[in-house]
Design a protein that fits this description.
Elements: E1 3-8, H1 13-23, E2 34-39, H2 45-58, E3 63-69, H3 72-75, E4 81-84, H4 96-117, E5 123-126, H5 131-141, E6 150-152, H6 155-169, E7 176-177, E8 181-182, E9 190-191, E10 197-198, E11 201-202, H7 203-211, H8 214-227, H9 229-237, H10 243-258, E12 264-269, E13 281-289, E14 292-295, H11 303-323
């Protein structure tokens, strides 16, 4: 039986980058057949239909069916996995509160459609920004669906952090492990190297040999570079991250379904872990076990890290307050 995967904003650039990799088996593996449901707003349907034609021409052995629609009820009918990519971007002069309200008008109805139509075990990954609070909005609207079935993408931030460490240490990125992202997917995020290792050795020790003053390098170079990498790419490329965002989304969803080896990062609902207020969708170090995200508990948090986590969590609290009447 094929797995039904719904992608919203499927006619956009990230959606386009996702489709062919999913059809090729990069998400669920070389044995799992998929059905794709492509959801777009009416003015984006033609673009999604064009992508569907290309999927047909790709003759993917694992792709059983593609349907393009502007109806959320149709798109989420029987959905097993959802990637909520489409979101309202921040326009000129738009305040963050306006952006949150505009996205509530997208993710609230989608959450309700998921509750009414999706498969009982649906897993929903929110990619569209502001991802954490969009996930909170969707989960709040999905009456009867456990909030743990919704998560926000912070894997891209983790990938960026690991890549920056690998570059600084002139090491393969695969040798860098346990670099969680805490808090919000925003400029306040905290990429944490406190427990990171390189080939099993503490990253901090390796950094000391390369950069000297590790705290200053983290404060002045590493953390800002990771947090502002999206803006850097826009400056250089002329448009936002596309392929790297799609790659992160696939890695996130794949690990959620198939399990992780060690830690990764995801925005998941808090039950009070590490002092994060209950109900917020915050990024934590997580593992996937039996198809469920589990927060890695018991980590020591020093005062320097605590202050950065608290600052990002405070932003999430403010975002929740901004949309509370819409939840």
């Amino acid at each position: 039986m094929a797995t039904t995967i719904t992608i919203t904003g499927a006619g956009g650039q990230i959606g386009y980058a996702l489709l062919f990799r999913i059809a090729a088996g990069d998400l669920l593996g070389a044995e799992e057949h998929v059905r794709l449901r492509l959801l777009e707003i009416p003015q984006g349907v033609k673009s999604a239909e064009g992508a569907a034609l290309e999927l047909q021409d790709g003759a993917f052995a694992l792709l059983d069916d593609v349907e393009v629609t502007d109806s959320a009820d149709t798109a989420f009918d029987g959905c097993d996995l959802a990637l909520l990519v489409g979101a309202r971007p921040r326009g000129p002069g738009m305040e963050r509160g306006d952006l949150l309200a505009a996205n509530a008008g997208i993710f609230g109805p989608q959450g309700r459609a998921i509750a009414e139509n999706a498969a009982p075990g649906v897993r929903v990954t929110v990619v569209g920004n502001p991802a954490n609070t969009n996930a909170l909005i969707a989960a709040s609207a999905a009456d009867g669906v456990p909030a743990e079935r919704f998560s926000a993408l912070t894997r891209l931030d983790e990938n960026r952090a690991r890549a920056q460490l690998a570059a600084a240490l002139e090491a393969p990125v695969a040798s860098i492990r346990n670099v969680p992202i805490w808090g919000n997917h925003s400029a306040t995020q905290f990429p944490d190297v406190s427990h990171a290792t390189i080939d099993g050795r503490p990253v901090r020790d390796a950094l000391a040999e390369r950069v000297g003053d590790v705290p200053s390098w983290l404060e002045d170079t590493f953390i800002p570079r990771v947090a502002k990498r999206g803006a850097e790419i826009i400056d250089v490329r002329g448009s936002s991250s596309v392929a790297s965002a799609a790659n992160a989304a696939i890695g996130h969803a794949r690990d959620w379904v198939r399990g992780t080896e060690g830690w990764t990062s995801a925005g998941v609902v808090s039950h009070g872990e590490y002092g994060v207020p209950e109900g917020l969708v915050s990024s934590f170090p997580v593992e996937s076990v039996d198809g469920q995200w589990r927060i890695v508990e018991g980590l020591e948090i020093d005062a320097w890290s605590r202050a950065r986590i608290d600052a990002s969590v405070a932003e999430l609290v403010a975002e929740r307050e901004a949309v509370r009447e819409l939840l």
